[in-house]
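Data availability (excerpt). The following record was deposited with the supplementary files.
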Amino acid sequence: MKVKKGNVLSVQLQNQTGEETIIHWHGLHVDWRNDAHPMFAVRNGASYDYRFPVQNRGGTYWYHPHPHRLTAKQAYGGLAGFFIVE
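Predicted structure:
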């Protein structure tokens, strides 16, 4: 995925994992609604809309799950990825 600095990133998480999950945008400057605190984990079958302006400088960043005690399992299972800020 590519996004330009200054643009708004809008992504919907549709959780079909069978357990709770949430996305952490590693390295990005985001507000608390988009920062994946484990207490806001999305239950299975539910969805969550992320929407925030990309304020970081150009570079390669990554996102990963961040639910309490499930982060490593879910990231190892493929729920992580990279994106480029132009």
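Summary of structural features: Strands lie at 2-3, 8-14, 23-26, 47-53, 59-65, 81-85.
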